Amino acid sequence: MNELEQVELSFNDDVKRVSNTKELENLRVLYLGKKGKITELFSKIKEIAVEEKKAFGQKINSIKTYVEQKINDLKNKFEEEKVKSEIANEKEIDITLPVSTGTGSLHPRTSLQKEIEDIFISMGFTVEDGYEVETEFNNFDAVNVPKNHPARDMQDTFWLTNGELLKTHTSASQNRILRKYNGPLKAIFPGRCFRNEALDHSHENTFFQMEGMLVDKDVSVANLIYFMKKMLSKVFKTDINIRLRPGFFPFVEPGFEMDATCTFCGGRGCSTCKNTGWLELCPCGMIHPNVFKNAGINPDEYSGFAFGLGFDRLVMLKTGLDDIRYLNSGNIKVLNQFGVEA
Ligand code: FA5
Questions:
Q1: Where are the alpha helices (DSSP H) in 129-220?
Q2: What is the pLDDT along the chain (342 residues), one digit of tens a residue?
Q3: CB 151 within 8 A of CB 145
Q4: What residue owns the CA closest to ligand 1's atom 14?
Q5: Topology of domain 108-338, per CATH?
Q6: Residue with CA closest to ligand 1 atom 23
Q7: How far is the CA of 311 from the centre of ligand 1 (A)?
Q8: Atom of ligand 1 nearest to the CA of 209
């Protein structure tokens, strides 16, 4: 019994000197660990005379409970103190200070895309999705591009090792959309395109086009001119005139280059339009019979037009940006000037 009292006394002495969690853990091991003073007392029970065993056992248990309780209390005390000191050390937050209002904006490309989509939707068009990775068939064969066309070269197209490619134009979606509707349709399909280009102020390797198709019975070039004039006048909020020049694209017949009145000088002539009064806007034309046939549509029954707006160039016209490379640059200072708030 003497030994028990001594252990209790020494614990009471030791515990007074403990001032942090680490010391407390050492103390716990010293008394309650595998070879701790209290644990060892239990092994002594067998040496005790039978009549004293019960009292001895009860006393060890009560010392053990007492030690555990003390250690637990101290552990809680240290944790509480730690939290309090962390809070005290934290810098005060002044909730009355003005916070940054930099909420960002939509990319100028995205805001113009939304604007143009809304205009076409109001004219009864649907907005279709396209893929960025395409098959050679969809990108080239389906739209009547000959097998030996230079656009298929490694120099112009990013080919994937599995024989697929990064789509070089939004026309790659034509076949899928023609098959989807299998008849009359009015659709636009914006998308990211990729070409292995030498970069300059008007050429990117990653750029956007917005393509459109209208298919029905007896569609004519006049319909194409009407829709483009309407859309552009709405985008530029002024009456825009259009002219067509001959242009060759294997997927249209006849094919055109479409010019629009220069939006900077209103057609009078300026440096942007090189004094011509016209801006080259987009290639277009009447859908080639082979494109219809490749999609299982009878070209004698249906006709249609297609156009492929160089979307980044349109964004440049709208914003006055003189270098296409800004659009992919992630330069917030430049982009924030033109984007509409999200
Ligand atoms: C085409 O891509 C045709 N698929 C467009 C088309 C569709 C014609 C439907 C007829 C009917 P083109 O290669 O010219 O055509 O590209 C169309 C527009 O994309 C160009 O006028 C230009 O504005 C833009 N563009 C082409 N290459 C780049 C480039 N590297 N960087 C930025 N814009 C480009």
A1: 136-139, 174-181
A2: 688 889 999 999 999 999 999 999 999 999 999 889 998 888 888 888 888 888 888 899 999 999 999 999 999 999 999 888 888 887 677 778 777 666 778 899 999 999 999 999 999 999 999 999 999 999 999 999 999 888 888 779 999 999 999 999 999 999 999 999 999 999 999 999 999 988 998 899 999 999 999 999 999 999 999 988 988 898 888 888 999 999 999 999 999 999 998 888 888 998 888 899 998 889 999 999 999 999 999 999 999 999 999 999 889 888 888 899 999 998 888 887 876 665
A3: yes
A4: 283
A5: BirA Bifunctional Protein; domain 2 (3.30.930)
A6: 310
A7: 9
A8: 19
On whether the CB atoms of residues 223 and 285 are closer than 8 A, the answer is no
pTM: 0.72
Q: What φ, ψ does residue 62 adopt, rounded to 5°?
A: -70, -35
Pocket of ligand 1 (CB under 6 A): 169, 171, 195, 197, 203-204, 207, 209, 211, 249, 251-252, 282-285, 306-308, 310, 312-313, 324
User: In this structure, what token pair is assigned to residue 128?
Assistant: 């279709």
The whole-angstrom separation of Cα 163 and Cα 148 is: 16
Most ligand 1 atoms within 8 A of CB, residue of 144, 170, 199, 207 to mutate: 207
